[in-house]
Amino acid sequence: MPFAPVLHSEWLKIRTLRSLVAGLCALVVVTAAFTALAGADSSDGGEADFDPLFTAFFGVNFGQIAAITFGAQAVSSEFQGGALRVSLTAVPRRGRWFAAKTTAIGAPVLVVGLLTGFVSLAVGKAVLGDRASGMSWAEGLQAVVGCGIYLALMALFAAGLTAVLRSGVTTLSILIPFLLLVSFVVGDMSGNAADFLPDRAGQVVLHETWDGMLGPWAGLAVTAVWTSAALLAGSWSVRRRDA
Question: What pTM, to 2 d.p., does this model score?
Answer without folding.
Answer: 0.93
